[in-house]
Structures are given as C-alpha cells and as structure tokens.
C-alpha cells in the first residue's frame, strides 16, 4: 500500500519564473547561481567545502535537468541526464513569493486573495495597531517598527531590548509581523503569548503570519536565534492535501515548520527538529512509524533562514551538499510503492540584491521504485504536486491542479 514523502527544501528555487520581472527578480536563480559561484571558486568554506557544487544524488533525480528546463541553462557541475527520477518544474499561480503561499499551493490550494503587507516606511506598522498591541500585551513599548533582516535587527537593538523590556517588532516584503525577544530576559512563554495577541490583531489585515523569534546571548557578537521559533499562521482557505488525507483516516506527519505553516490543520503527528541533520533524522523516524497511505512532509528551513536571507553562498552550497549526502539513506528505506518528492516553495537567491525571497520556479524531483524515469515538464501550478500525491494515495481529486503520475 502506497505512502508519500515530501522533502520541502525551503527556498531552493531554480529560476525562470515568467512573472519574475514583476517582483524585480528577473534572472534570479538560487540553485543556478550557487552552482556558478561554486564552480568559480567563490563558495569555498575552509575545511568544509570547495570548488564545484557536488549534489550527485539530487542530480541523479533530475536537479540539473530541472534547472535547465526552468532557466534554459545547465549549471556547472550538474548533469542534464538524470539516472532514475522523474523530473519537472513547478510554476506558482499564487501571487505571494512566500512560505505559506508555496506550501498551500503544493498541498493543492493556491492562494486566491492578496496578502496584507506593511509599507517600506518607518514606522512601518499602523500606530493604532501598535498602541492596541502595547496595551493588550502590557508592554513598555516596542523597538524596531521597520523592515529588517532578523539577525541584523537583533544585533542592532538586542541590548536595548534587554535593557528596556521592549520586544523588537519588524517585517519584510513577506506578509509577516515578526517579534524578536530574549528567551530568558524577556521569557519564551511570554514571547509566545504576545505573539498570540499580535496574531489576533493582524489577522484582520490579512497578515499571513506572526513569527516568534527568540534569541540568546548578551551582546551583538553573541546574540543567536534559537530553534524555538514559532509561526502563528492563518489557516488555508480550503482543505489541503493534509486535511484530505487525515479525513480519509490516514496518518499525516508534519516535520519541522510544516504544522505551523498549515495552522495545524490535517496534522496527525507533529515532529520537531533543528537543522538539516535533525530534520532528516525525524523524516527517517516518521518513515519507520508511517502506516499505509501515510503522508510525510518535512520543511528544511535552514536553506532559507540560515543561508538565503543571509546571502551566504558558501553556506547555502554546503547545506545543499549536506542534504544531498543523506539522500541515499532515505532512498534505501523506500518501500516499493513509496513516493518521494523533493521540491521547494519559492526562491531565495543568495547572490541577489537585498535579503528577501526571489520569485522563481521550483524543482519537482519525483522518485519511486515503482515508477519508471521520465520528464513531467513545466507544471502550470504547484498544485499538480498535491494532486499527484492525492492520486498516489488513492484520494479523490481536488479542485486545483492535475496529477502528473
Ligand atoms: O530575516 P529573518 O528574520 O530571517 O526573516 C525572514 O523570515 C521570514 C519568514 O520566513 C521572512 O519574511 C524573512 O523576512
Ligand atoms: Mn519558505
Ligand atoms: Mn524566508
């Protein structure tokens, strides 16, 4: 009896989105540019990696071929001829180049509405929103109130935050209200509580998520965000693949950020982990526990949060190589009728200006011992991924997308 596993490599885009120019992202290509920089010796990391990008296992599943199909160019170090997978390219119909939009569409539900965003001004948040937030959360005030990169804003305002007890509130070009606060000086549970209040206040503005960003350390040099990030997200507008599989009485394993991204809806088993290796371990553990018709989905957030937003090309290359090195373990655990899909939710080209996501197409790398290799082309919506999994698991077709299997 079939099972399905999705490894969502957060932000591992492959360029070529036809609407990229509308986002200022024409030419952005996360995997393509990392491979180019690596081949040019611009992604070396002393003692960790050097030279061309080495991801032989993803490449065998069709990564190089997918980048070529998406962007027209084969990146250096990758091959155009996959060895066993069925490869293709996903194009997003949802307007947001953000995590919930990408994930919901992959699970069969494109986002039909416009998210709310905060303007590129200082202050960025509406004063009446902040006044109400301060009143209800019983705060002495807030810091930040602007667009910022999370690590930079903590370095800038972390000490003042510790001194004053004012949480650091910031946003980005995504539909987010983020709150950074010190885990011990401010308190983790208190941070979560004020995030819930912020979520109630921002949901009517169609803000997709409030994100708790706890950190530790006492000075800019030692401040470090912890693994206790928590996302408070609005729920998808229709039942997703997760809801549909759970409603059919099957297991749904949500690993890493997945449960938060779908607001817990349709999740029967939630597993947490920090870092690529732990998240990979959790995925293998879920495969041990998973019964027939189970759906397992893991979000590998580090590509995006640790390397893409930080514009860290060597770090991103090393992370891709680390993930790739574990793939054979996962593949060796696949049962005959298990389906494995590697994909992404948006791009975050670390060679691109700024620190935000990039509008890109994503790889769809499909493997099952039961499937002959082949090409699935450029899919006109990420929802084709969800519908393919639904068909594989024997669920009735949904409203969006078509199976490529
Ligand atoms: O700079 P940091 O705090 O990592 O923020 C990033 O993380 C947010 C959620 O993925 C994005 O909106 C982006 O701004
Ligand atoms: Mn993402
Ligand atoms: Mn991100």
Automatic annotation (TrEMBL):
Group of enzyme by EC: isomerase
Annotated Mn(2+) 2 binding sites: 304, 309, 357
GO MF entry, a single one: phosphopentomutase activity
Domain Metalloenzyme: 3-395
Cofactors, names only: Mn(2+)
Annotated positions binding Mn(2+) 1: 10, 345-346
InterPro entries xrefs: Alkaline_phosphatase_core_sf, DeoB, Metalloenzyme, Phosphopentomutase_DeoB_cap_sf
Subcellular location(s) of the protein: Cytoplasm
Comment on bound cofactor: Binds 2 manganese ions.
Pfam families xrefs: Metalloenzyme
Pathway the protein takes part in: Carbohydrate degradation; 2-deoxy-D-ribose 1-phosphate degradation; D-glyceraldehyde 3-phosphate and acetaldehyde from 2-deoxy-alpha-D-ribose 1-phosphate: step 1/2
Catalytic reaction list: alpha-D-ribose 1-phosphate = D-ribose 5-phosphate; 2-deoxy-alpha-D-ribose 1-phosphate = 2-deoxy-D-ribose 5-phosphate
Keywords noted in UniProt: Cytoplasm, Isomerase, Manganese, Metal-binding
UniProt-listed Enzyme Commission number(s): 5.4.2.7
HAMAP family listed in its UniProt record: Phosphopentomut (MF_00740)
Purpose: Isomerase that catalyzes the conversion of deoxy-ribose 1-phosphate (dRib-1-P) and ribose 1-phosphate (Rib-1-P) to deoxy-ribose 5-phosphate (dRib-5-P) and ribose 5-phosphate (Rib-5-P), respectively.
Family, per entry: Belongs to the phosphopentomutase family.
Protein name (Swiss-Prot/TrEMBL): Phosphopentomutase
Organism name: Devosia albogilva
Taxonomic path: Bacteria, Pseudomonadati, Pseudomonadota, Alphaproteobacteria, Hyphomicrobiales
């Amino acid at each position: 009896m079939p099972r399905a596993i999705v490894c969502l490599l957060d932000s591992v885009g492959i360029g070529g989105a036809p609407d990229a120019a509308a986002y200022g992202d024409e030419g952005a290509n996360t995997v393509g540019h990392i491979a180019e920089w690596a081949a040019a010796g611009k992604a070396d990391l002393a003692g960790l990696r050097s030279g061309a990008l080495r991801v032989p296992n993803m490449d065998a599943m069709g990564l190089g071929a997918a980048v070529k199909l998406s962007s027209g160019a084969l990146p250096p170090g990758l091959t155009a001829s996959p060895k066993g997978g069925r490869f293709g390219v996903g194009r997003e119909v949802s307007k947001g180049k953000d995590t919930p939009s990408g994930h919901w569409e992959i699970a069969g539900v494109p986002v039909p509405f416009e998210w709310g965003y905060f303007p590129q001004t200082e202050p960025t948040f509406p004063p009446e929103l902040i006044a109400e937030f301060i009143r209800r959360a019983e705060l002495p005030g807030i810091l930040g109130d602007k667009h910022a990169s999370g690590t930079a804003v903590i370095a800038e305002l972390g000490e003042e935050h510790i001194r004053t007890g004012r949480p650091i509130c910031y946003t980005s070009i995504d539909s987010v209200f983020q709150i950074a606060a010190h885990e011990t000086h401010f308190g983790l549970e208190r941070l979560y509580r004020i995030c819930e209040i912020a979520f109630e206040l921002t949901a009517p503005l169609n803000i997709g998520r409030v994100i708790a960003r706890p950190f530790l350390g006492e000075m800019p040099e030692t401040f470090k965000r912890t693994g206790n990030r928590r996302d408070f997200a609005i729920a998808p507008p229709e039942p997703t693949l997760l809801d549909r599989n759970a409603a059919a009485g099957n297991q749904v394993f949500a690993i890493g950020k997945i449960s938060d991204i779908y607001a817990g809806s349709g999740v029967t088993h939630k597993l947490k982990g920090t870092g690529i290796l732990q998240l990979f371990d959790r995925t293998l553990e879920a495969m041990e526990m998973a019964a027939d018709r189970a759906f397992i989905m893991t979000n590998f957030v580090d590509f995006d949060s640790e390397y893409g937003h930080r514009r860290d090309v060597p770090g991103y290359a090393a992370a891709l190589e680390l993930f790739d090195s574990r793939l054979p373990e996962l593949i060796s655990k696949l049962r005959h009728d298990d389906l494995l899909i590697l994909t992404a939710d948006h791009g975050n080209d670390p060679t691109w200006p700024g620190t935000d996501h990039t509008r890109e197409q994503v790889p769809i790398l499909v493997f099952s011992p039961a499937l002959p290799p082949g090409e699935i082309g450029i899919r006109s919506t990420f929802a084709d991924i969800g519908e393919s999994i639904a068909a594989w698991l024997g669920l009735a077709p949904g409203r969006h997308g078509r199976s490529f299997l």
